[in-house]
Amino acid sequence: MVRRPYVEAVQYLRQVNWPEQENLRFLLWGRLGSGKSVSLSQISHFALKSNYILLNFRDLAQLLSKYKESTESEYKAGRWDFPQEAQIYLKEIKHYNFDKLDGLVTHKTYKWSEM
């Protein structure tokens, strides 16, 4: 069973001109129990199978309230880093996208901490 929001979102994803698109956001909105989570799961499955890189930030509210360690950002004053949680998220990104990350190149130098 597929839901109408899934079908609509997939149609939009197929129409996007990705090289020209910088930021694209979709909003799933509806009352409690209307199927947002199921639709999001189906859209995520479509994205993975269609060779998109998937970033799954589950429990973001919990990350911002129940973190284990925080440090002030070296990149920009007033921002904070959560090194232990970042490590968990990076491992999940690598797990979901293991076959899509080979050959990607960064254009900046990054300083990695020892964990």
Which terms would index this structure?
single chain; 115 residues; mainly alpha; 2 strands; globular
Q: Which strands sit side by side, in order, in the main sheet?
A: 1-2
Helix coverage percent: 40-55%
How many beta-strand segments?
2
Percent strand equals: under 5%
Low-confidence stretches: none
Reading the helices and strands in chain order gives HHHEEH
Structural class: mainly alpha
Secondary structure tally, helices: 4
Distance separating the two termini: 44 Å
Radius of gyration: 17 Å
> Please, what is the average pLDDT?
84
| Largest sheet features | 2 strands, antiparallel
**Global outline:** globular
Description of the molecule:
The chain is mainly alpha-helical. It is 40% helix and 3% strand. It has four helices and two strands; from the N terminus they run αααββα. Strands 1-2 form a two-stranded antiparallel ribbon. The radius of gyration is 17 Å and the shape is globular.
What are the SSEs and their pairings?
Blueprint: H1 4-15, H2 36-49, H3 60-65, E1 71-72, E2 80-81, H4 83-96
Antiparallel strand pairs: 1-2
Helix pairs in contact: 1-2
Can you describe this structure in just a few lines?
The chain contains 4 helices and 2 strands; from the N terminus they run αααββα. It is mainly alpha-helical and 115 residues long.
